[in-house]
């Protein structure tokens, strides 16, 4: 697949899965043996665990919206610089809902193989999110 095709796959992940909360869309977008290099506590690898990760995000942060600020591809890698805004409306990793809004930035690196998401790494400004949610000063 071309780099443009790979970018389109990754855009669909943010637009259709995360922003539209279409978790079942991962069936078409990710490989069965998906590898998460920065898992949440207790998260493993594989499509089922990716679905659980996304479901957890959607349940904890509603509304939640990702905006792709930049997207760059080289070979099978696609890098996305994004912002995410939402409300902490449900429990997340043992933290009860605060009802507070947040806006954070992050960078994801995806590997796309045969037109599907295969691997993921990320860096997220969790410190800013915790401050905005009132969890740390």
Describe the fold and architecture.
Helices cover 31% and strands 40% of the residues. The model has no long low-confidence stretch (mean pLDDT 97). The relative contact order is 0.19. The protein is globular and about 45 Å long. The protein has four helices and five strands; from the N terminus they run ααβαββββα. It has helices spanning 3-19, 26-29, 47-60, 126-132, and strands spanning 30-36, 61-74, 77-88, 101-113, 116-124. The protein is an alpha+beta fold.
Keywords, please?
single chain; 137 residues; alpha+beta; Nuclear Transport Factor 2, Chain: A; five-stranded mixed beta sheet; 4 helices; 5 strands
Write the layout of secondary structure elements.
Elements: H1 3-19, H2 26-29, E1 30-36, H3 47-60, E2 61-74, E3 77-88, E4 101-113, E5 116-124, H4 126-132
Parallel strand pairs: 1-5
Antiparallel strand pairs: 2-3, 3-4, 4-5
